[in-house]
Predict the 3D structure of the following.
Amino acid sequence: MPDAPILQVSELNVFRGATHVLKDVSFEVARGELVALIGANGAGKSTTLLALSGLLPARSGTARMTTDEGTIELTRASTETIVRNGLIHCPEGRQIFQSLSVADNLALGAYTRTDKDWIAQTTEEVYRLFPILREREKIPAGALSGGEQMMLAMGRALLGAPKLLLLDEPSLGLAPKVIDTIFDVIAELRLRGVTILLIEQNAAMALEIADRAHVMEHGRVTLSGTGASLMENDRVRQAYLGVSA
Amino acid sequence: MSQYLFQQLINGLALGSLYALVAIGFSMIYGIVRLINFAHGDLVMIGAFATLGMLFYGTPWPVTLLVVLLVGALAGAMIQTVVFRPMLGAPQVTGFIASLAVSITIQNSALMLLSGQPRNFLFPEAMRQRVSLGGVSASLTDLVIIGLTLTLIAILFVIVYRTRLGRAMRATAENLMAARLMGIGVNRTIVAAFAIGSALAAVAGLFWGGKFGQIDPLLGSVPGLKAFIACVIGGVGSIGGAMLGGYILGLAEVLFVGLLPQAYAGYRDTFVFSLLILILLIKPSGLFVRHVEERA
């Protein structure tokens, strides 16, 4: 089924402790699409991504990733298997390895990759996208600025050979100029056919770049549509774009 | 250099080697899962008795060394898999108490199986000779212990800083969640850290028996406690710090006894613990750690 959506989430329920965080969440991401999840803090966006990469168990429901290599049930597979199959999660707060060098961080991104030539070539590619990382190659990643750390997190994710890239708040706490760089790279990845699921506080930027978007409120997907149509939606404009009615 | 001072230095370095071997494993385990493992010293005892068993069957020393490394690694891997793996993510105190339980279980099982009777084993005749080096002499046993320890530590550093496994261990130690997201099998990586650390402790048991000539089922308590102190001195969680902490502790103990009048010799442990308190007052994160890391 070459046309099956790369990601199919249906009726997903996730608890964190006793709290019911995701309530019957369903959505799909087609191959090559850039889909944004927008919503307030605590709406369940990050929890969705954590469940997709197998870091949080699902109480019920399914999440299925279909690639050329086959289909895997994300709610049952280990994170290791999920990553090996090309679902790469660039987590909130960047989570780079601070005490390790920039080069080590990038090498860890390629941990599941075995083709040495591909790794060398992709590392070059990352250095071309973010030249500052090459200069900082030997420096502990914790010494980088916030923007550079974000670039490193993105570069590290690219070295995992993502078929489906989950980006959690890539613009958080960054200067506008750095945000532009990051979004330029996201746009470039999309042109190259990488499927992206993007979480973003900055709803305007996310909707502008996204093919489709889902609005999450209190653990449910309450509104879905193309990026452009949601930008025109009154509720979205009031709640997330800061436009008064 | 006077023979006396030289002798004390070699003694201190040999004792420091034993402490360093135990402390490094203690520190690796703390580093990767934030577990204060009070059962770690008992791996020294397991290593010592494994050596005794091998000698009973007349196994040659190089083979014995390899077998002891293997026994330690297997014991460490087993303890981690059975006891500590289910506690990953539990509060730190849970693991700490469990490690006390493991320690008591190992010690009492050993008492039941092997009896409390101390046993003797010695390094072969050839290794107990003294060698002269330009006017001073040292026991070959001490020199072998120091040499082998440094070799093992060098191999460890290559593993930790130059291999894929080592990189995965450092990543897991720093950020468990991010390590998972890299596709690292963190359970395997944690087992590897336990196995390597425990193998080093078991070799310390082989050296312990060879140096002091006598072993018993409770012999692990002292090296376990001293390793803990060495880690605190050097900075717990850091391999280099644990190693240096071990050598500092060994040298300090021997020089304290050797250079002060005989009457003070009985205060050896008082001195060691005072040193610990002093270092904690001056540099609470340890001498060789640049910053206090907090885990998110």
Observations:
- Chain A touches chain B at residues 53, 55, 78-80, 83-84, 88-89, 91, 95-100, 104, 107-109, 111-112, 156, 160 (CB under 8 Å).
